[in-house]
User: Fold these one by one.
Assistant:
Number 1:
Amino acid sequence: MKYNELAVEVLEKVGGPKNVISLVHCATRLRFKLRDSSKAQTEALKKTPGIIMVVESGGQFQVVIGNDVSQVYTPIAARLEGSLPETLPGDAQSKEGLFARLIDIISAVFTPFIGILIAGGVLKGLLSIALAIGWTTQKTDTYQILFAASDAMFYFLPIFLGYSACKKFGGSPFVGMAIGGALTHPMMLAAFTASQLPGAQPHHFLGIPVVMINYGSTVIPIILASWLSSKIERAIHPRLHSAVRNFLTPLICLAVVVPLTFLLIGPAATWLSNMLAQGYELIYGFNSVIAGVLMGGLWQVCVMFGIHWGIVPIMMNNLSVVGHDTLIPLLVPAIFGQVGATLGIFLRSKDAQLKGNAASAMAAGICGITEPAVYGITLPNRRAFVFGSLGGAAGAGVVGYFHSAVYSFGFPGIFSLTQVIPPSGFDMTVVAVIVSIIISLIISTGLTYCFATPRAVEQELPAAAGHAVENDNSAALNINELNPVSTASNLSLQNAKAREVIYSPLSGALKPLEQISDPIFAGGLLGKGAFISPTGGRVVSPIDGKVASLFKTFHAIGLESPLGAEILIHVGIDTVKLDGQYFTPHVREGDDVVRGQLMLEFDAEAIRAAGYSLDTPVLITNSDEFTDVDVNDSAEIVENTSLLTLIR
């Protein structure tokens, strides 16, 4: 329930659905593109429990949630479905700078599959460890099957990029996949291999010479090709007759873009990729230690403003062009620098809540997610953030000195240790990364413990840290505190957790949830249950329990039962727009209630006269924690009679 409520609150405070142009999410953030950012209630969002920080950067309005970001994204995306424009309005695009648009494109294109790409990289790293210690060889079937699983995403990257890039540019994602498939087609790869042999005959398309290139794992060619395909699609689709446009549009796109990619876009993009890789190698080769110190010290600043996405293509391009990347290892100490600073605060602080928040943030940081540590722990202390950055800079200098590299893609973190083992086996470049982690931890932990004063740690942090890790203690329910239920009956309830009955909060016509007019409720996105078309104007409690939430517009009430069921009663469809008019609450958030107790009254006639449906969903929002939710099969139901039976 808490994620659904947070989603509603976030959407409201960014200016509502009509103010949202696009929405994606990465590992920790909701990334909005807003029509008018001045309509967003930035300060109110920062103070909302469950939100770590709000950042405006790169043309995006970023709401940092943490590891549970996908749980909040899903209900927001469902409410936005059908209301987002296919492409950005011209005025919205014109207000953005080139860099902001570039960051927006990169994050939208790479975010959807970055998790599985990292998973493949970690699996490939684990296989490298298995080879290094002699557990397997490259000739075994086991190794080859697991290697195929680890390498497939990266090898066929143009296909996946074609989907996400075309979707971002407003074209058909499946046309983008087809273009990517053409670039990695076995016939084209065979032609490339043949072109490398001595005396090979040149290839032509309609008499025009074609430079054959291996496009497996490439990034830039398919993104440019997807952009061109989307432009062509949007230009011709409205002009074609409806009887033929569904197949003629992709036919024209494929017939034009694929040859152009092999003839022009691919070679030009490959040249650009090589120049980018060589440019990075030139800077890195000038002084790798200085490069390490700068990247290790400034990486968290890039993360804070969300501009680290602009560096991701460089990492992937390095792997594609030269077979390894020296940038990712430089960032590993930067991650552990913030982990160490958080550890210093954990050791120094005497505040139990702060120590708990710090412990949770450290666990996420070790895996490479530093936003909870940065926004919730180190940045509010200021000194701790600086000490963490200093530790990262020192460790990255060591990595740069030994020229450590990764051989598969993955964001920096503890799992990077599996990816820095070179094909030749364990060597000093691997040791350097391990030593760099130790150095960054020692420096950042020591400096924070010694020089982040007790006053700063004890007084400055709790207010900010409270947003980093959501404290659910306020929602915890002590069964023995419910006055109407005796201790003996509580014990019997605890022994009967297999089944729980939820009684009807209203009288009226009972109907299956999938028949309700609101697609979000009908699709079961917010949980299983049923809906009632009420004949009266009152809502009573369906359980002995506690009021977990009461919306400020009074149209919806959330309850928690002693056995853990989370119940949402939502009176009417879109009645939130009434802003509390015609509703009279008789309970407050946090109140204990007994079954049948009056919780809410509403003026049914006035609400219907205002044009709103009173169909009222009664949902179990944590229904995935139950084996089944059985619904009363009666056509009519009376309040305080059995409505739902929950089976664990």
Number 2:
Amino acid sequence: MQWREVDGYDWYVLETPETGPYLSLVLGYGLVHEPVEEFGTLQLAAGMLQTELSRPVETGFGRASVPEVSVTVGSDTTTIGMRGDVATLSAAWQRLADVLAGRQTVDISDPVDVRISAAPRDITTRFGLTSLTLAASQVVQPQAAGDPFMLLGHLNPAAGQVRAVMCTNTEQLISNAFAAPTGGLAGVERSRYRADARPGGMEFRAGYPLISVMVPSSADGAAAVRVLAQQTVQHIHDVTRRDLGIEVSLVSVGPDTLATLMVVDAILHGQQRSQIQQLIVSKPIPDHRIADAVEFEVDNRPLSRILARRVHGLDDEFASLDATHQAVAQARATMRFYTDPFSHLPAGYEPIDQALPAADGPKFKRKAGRDHLVIGTGVIEHRYAGGHGAVTVDVVDVHNLALVIEDPSDAVVLIDDQYRTVDVIFDVYRKQNQLRELITQRTQGVPRITAGDLIPTAQVRRQVGKSRMLKWAVGLAPVAIIMFAVLMSWAEGLREVGEPAPEHMDPPQARQDEPERAAEQVKTAAGETATLANWSRVTVDVAEFEPGEDSEFAAFTGVHLVADIEYCAAEDEDFVDPELFSMTHGEPSQFAHDVEDVEDPLQPRELEAGQCATGQLGYFVMGDEATNMQVSYSYDYPGRVTWVVEDISSGS
């Protein structure tokens, strides 16, 4: 194997005749180089090349042949690889040169698929917001906002705007199909690692990733990651007493590589996750492991890394003990931890999220429910009901907005440079025209792309529509409330002395002498009634029930539970939302599985003063973990009511 310079290009010549003729072009342009507002253009251009180069080529009079072609788009490179006989590859290589030079037309085709295994927030807060972030999200589909034909010209090695290296295992295929480059890109490609990137924690729902680190894009960096993976496997065994595998995802960005370590066979929760992450940072790494990793990298030098380093202006070097020790130190200094709601960071680390000041500006309420937006001059805030009863607050930094994604269904997603996001569905808010105007003002000059199906707009609008129908029908409600009050008044003489009167007869809203109450955290027993800060009353009781044969968890060992809920409003335009309720169990605490198989599901609805809503929520607790159970209702932060489940009765 050797490097040669031919007509201004670096060629890497392999000695692998047993594999058949091979030819490739590696371009130093990948997703991280593509501006975010042009997301999808590179994938489309690659798809066009894939289709065009896979067509039959003439190899002689009356003869044609089809090469095997692969065009791949990576985080920091684009690679065109070909296999076939010498005549076929020579013709296909010339066609590639003609297409990139604009001498041959090419048709629009489907974009190539990419798969980036890393957290978008991790990528963005380390390397900035580019098309690499959107590709990693696997949510935004390529829209090709840029011109793919212009991009193909930009990628032409002869134009001298993008670094290129070529590789073959056949001397006859070294040719001058490409004109000599008109300019040169000297030196090493700069690092894109952000100066404000810092180690710490990133909270997600529990998943497979454990940690991520940044190492050099080199053999030493690969050795450092190998050592960390081996150490992590050992720590997992020490904590869980199980031999669980580890997978490593490598995302290269020029001279730097982001490595994410993930568990393969199980998801580690809470305390176990915390213990393993603490061991990773506190336990020293034995010298023999570093030596073994260096030896492995010296004996195994992947072709892809050799070519990628060359195309980014980096020398190809063998791994060494000193450089690998430095790479391990760099990994430790840049380490981030994937935490879940029930785990905690190792000592000395903090979340990477930078706190923003509270939003101060016009407030826009949903037409139904308690969700609202605050459009400040420096911060935009969206407060809404999240999953498992949590009140979620999304914020973006107006001064550092990086992208606006426009959804054709009349919605936008705002993303700042820390990958914080806020979504806005305009027509579900009151004063939507004023809201549109303010969003336009705050996002002036911010890059924009268009992408659909990012926000469940139809689902949100159905909820709003349902609430509107309830509001239109509320004229019938006072009759029912009056009848109920009269009946209870008639029955009052039958109550025993000291028995409290029903709350529906005297809604606290009507008591003019009651002081305002702040939202707080309250704990009571299942079956009891709790009073919220707005004087609304909520009662929760829990019983065991038998699921239907088609129930999601019917075949599993465990306990099916139903929470019977009654919510009575004390003020107009109150709203009961099933998403604000959750059940937890075990030690450490974890969420029960949601079950839809209940007779009378609690529905989201708007209530007037004195109205009550009743319904059920179903849960499933796996195995014999039905301990420390409690149902929580979260409302205006930090308000939370918790019903402790001590005795479970048998339900239907």
